[in-house]
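hiii so um. not sure if this is the right channel but i have a protein structure encoded as tokens and i wanna go backwards to a sequence. like what aa goes where. can anyone help
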């Protein structure tokens, strides 16, 4: 499984290159306070990681909007690696939810 290459953002973590993707515009799901998944893929196109953040980028529903930054992405990649994410090996996509890895 792969993610579309258009709009990918590059980040280097522990001398490994990863790509992540987020919409510039706030999505329908974010406006409606749904879980938002940020896909992350190693350059070898191994197992995809979806980071599920516990906040939205929208100010709807009385919540304070938060930015999704490269520092946040980097910390989540390191957390997933420490939990055993096999980023360079093919496999079914996996999610990082509340500090735990879970298969979709």
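sure thing!! here u go:
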């Amino acid at each position: 499984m792969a993610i579309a290459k258009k709009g990918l953002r590059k980040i280097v973590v522990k001398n490994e290159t990863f790509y992540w993707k987020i919409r510039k515009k706030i999505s329908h799901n974010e406006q409606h306070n749904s879980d938002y998944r940020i896909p992350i893929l190693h350059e070898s196109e191994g197992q995809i990681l979806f980071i599920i953040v516990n906040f939205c980028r929208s100010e709807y529903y009385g919540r304070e909007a938060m930015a999704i930054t490269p520092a946040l992405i980097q910390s989540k990649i390191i957390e997933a690696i420490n939990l055993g994410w096999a980023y360079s090996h093919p496999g079914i996509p996996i999610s990082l939810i509340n500090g735990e890895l879970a298969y979709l």
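oh and The longest strand covers residues 36-42.
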